[in-house]
What does this fold into?
Amino acid sequence: MQDYQLLRNVLSKNELLKRDLFGEIRKVTEGGELAIMRDTRPARWWLRRLARALLQREARALAALTDIDGVPQLMRSDHHTLLRTFIPGRPLFEYRPHSAVYFRDAAKLLRTIHRAGVTHNDLAKEPNVLVCDDSSPAFIDFQLAATTSSRGRLFRAAAREDIRHLLKHKRSYRPDLLTARERSILDTPSPPARAWMFFVKPVYLVVTRKLLGWSDREGAADR
Ligand SMILES: Nc1ncnc2c1ncn2[C@@H]1O[C@H](COP(=O)(O)OP(=O)(O)O)[C@@H](O)[C@H]1O
Ligand SMILES: [Mg+2]
It folds into this structure.
């Protein structure tokens, strides 16, 4: 049965990568190109509205990030589905990058994204940070991203949190590369982040692990 499913997936070039209460992520082919499809139709009925709102967030962010290397390109989206380009690579926890160039380029990529008015807001999760086949960095999964044209206080705080989350990965794999300034950023989470860790994170962990069944790696803000 499993073999049959595998064969079917290979033949149809439609591979299920992830399924949770919010829907499915599939690797598909579109016009001969590999692509990633987010589909909210299989989401639980009581989460469908939220899943669609998150999909719209991702569509808006990716539209603002057109032509940036290291970010999936938006191919199309509608009410229920979103198609983005496939980025060949491996997640951080699998590749365990050690190159200084990788961390330098990841920080540069994040600055480019922020300059476009987008904060990612989910970089603590290692599966959302890739090492591409050419060793360059990429960020995926813009469901929680915020897109703005006015860089107010909230934007700046969120951007700083993105930076802090990326630095946590650097601390995991190459702590010796951290500068004094980077260490001080790591040591001073923003007030909203502190409130999150104190009040919300314990609830979030129960919901994501017990209710949604996410693994530690997916349930993220661990580092
Ligand atoms: N553009 C992409 N290129 C390569 N792999 C991807 C891409 N988008 C998603 N994936 C793979 O699918 C998984 C789930 O996608 P993601 O957008 O992170 O969904 P979720 O929001 O449910 O976490 C990722 O962890 C990654 O392995
Ligand atoms: Mg993800």
User: Anything to note?
Assistant: Residues 17-18, 25, 36, 72, 84, 86-87, 127-128, 140-141, 143 surround adenosine-5'-diphosphate (ligand 1) (CB under 6 Å). Residues 60 and 147 are 7 Å apart (CA to CA). The mean pLDDT is 89.
